[in-house]
Amino acid sequence: QAHVVESGGGLAQFGGSLTLSCVVPRLTFSEFQVKWYHQGPGKERERIASIDHRSTVSKWGRFTVSRDNANHTAYLQIDNLQSEDTGDYYCTVQHRIGGHEYWGQGTQVTVSA
C-alpha cells in the first residue's frame, strides 16, 4: 500500500510560479510513474502532466514534472499562473508495469490577481 502526500498548495500570485511536492515514502519510487491531476471548482478532474520511471524531467506546456528518486519525491512546477489553475492538485503513482494507481489527498491552490 502506497502512502502519497502532496504539499505546497496555498495562495499563489497570478503570473507567478508555484511548485508542488509529492512524497511517496514506502515504495521503490524509481519503479513508479507519477501523474499529476487538476480539478478546478465545479469541473472534472483532468490529468495535466506525468513522468515515467526513467525520466528526471518532463515538460507539459506551463507544467514541468520532475522527480528525485533518492528522496521519494516528485514535483510539479506551474509557470505563468492563470486563474484557471485554481483548484485541487493530486499526485498519483503507478508501477511501471501497471497495476493499481495510488492517489494522494490533494493540495489546494488559489491563484489571485
Report what the structure shows.
With 113 residues, this protein is mostly beta strands. It has no helices and eleven strands. It has strands at 5-7, 10-13, 18-23, 32-39, 45-51, 57-60, 63-68, 73-78, 87-95, 101-103, 107-112. Strands 2, 4, 5, 9, 10 and 11 form a six-stranded mixed beta sheet that branches. Strand 9 (87-95) and strand 10 (101-103) form a beta hairpin.
Helical element count? 0
Distance between the first and last residues' Cα: 40 Å
- Biggest sheet overview: 6 strands, mixed
Q: What pattern of helices and strands is seen along the backbone?
A: EEEEEEEEEEE
Given as residue ranges, the uncertain stretches (5+ residues, pLDDT < 50) are none
**Overall residue-averaged pLDDT value:** 96
Question: What gross morphology would you assign?
Answer: globular
Question: How many strands appear in the DSSP assignment?
Answer: 11
- What oligomeric state do the depicted chains represent? single chain
Quote the beta fraction: over 45%
What level of helicity do the residues show?
under 10%
From the alpha carbons, calculate the radius of gyration and give it in angstroms.
13 Å
Q: Could you say which structural class the secondary elements and strand pairing correspond to? A: mainly beta
Entry summary:
This protein is mainly β and 113 residues long. It has strands spanning 5-7, 10-13, 18-23, 32-39, 45-51, 57-60, 63-68, 73-78, 87-95, 101-103, 107-112.
